[in-house]
Amino acid sequence: MHGKRQISDFIQKQNASFGLLKTADTIRRIKAELTRAFSSGFGQLSSVQTVITLILIYHTTSIGEILNFSPPEIASFRVALVGSFLLVIFIAILSVLLFLDDAKGAMLAALAFAAINTLLTVVTLYSFQSWQGFGFVVASGAALLIAVFRVKLRLTRLDFQAGFSSK
């Protein structure tokens, strides 16, 4: 719920910012405000998600016993928790890419996730059970890195894009 408020606040700030006169100083202020909004929102999201993930990892053995998991299944569950952590952050950054009008970047990151996850899942299915789930973690991490790179690239080019969008 808190993440939705952060995204809503960001949208309101973005709409207000782009309604201003697009001078170099205004664009620098907009860029600074967007960067602060991203940092604040993702700082809060990642800290909450980290705490929840760590609590679940700590209690994985107890949860596994309740659900009658075998030791390898408990290990796979821990791996899936790490992958889920990365995926939550990745999905949040995908929404930022869409807010920044970078559908191409969002699609690139999503396709990278799908391709890497599929390839590594197929490979690990035919290996030891202890490797299962690592494809998901690697795919989530790689897609997250691509998405973060695209957000940074989009913010770097904000002054250039805003200068031409007013014409």
What features would you describe in this structure?
The protein has 167 residues and is mainly alpha-helical. The chain has one domain. Helices cover 85% and strands 0% of the residues. It contains 7 helices and no strands. The protein has helices spanning 2-18, 24-58, 60-66, 71-99, 103-125, 134-156, 158-165. Helix 2 runs antiparallel to helix 4 and helix 4 runs antiparallel to helix 5 (103-125). The longest helix is centred in the first third of the chain and has 35 residues, at 24-58. It is elongated, with a radius of gyration of 19 Å. Residues 163-167 have low confidence and may be disordered.
Strand and helix map with partners:
Elements: H1 2-18, H2 24-58, H3 60-66, H4 71-99, H5 103-125, H6 134-156, H7 158-165
Number of helices: 7
Order of helices and strands: HHHHHHH
Distance between the termini: 38 Å
Which spans have pLDDT < 50 for at least 5 consecutive residues? 163-167
Main pleated-sheet profile: none
Number of individual domains: 1
Report the β-strand fraction as a percent range.
under 5%
Structural class: mainly alpha
Question: Care to give the gist of this entry?
Answer:
85% of the residues lie in helices and 0% in strands.
Q: Which terms summarize this structure?
A:
167 residues, disordered C terminus, 85% helix, 7 helices, 0% strand, mainly alpha
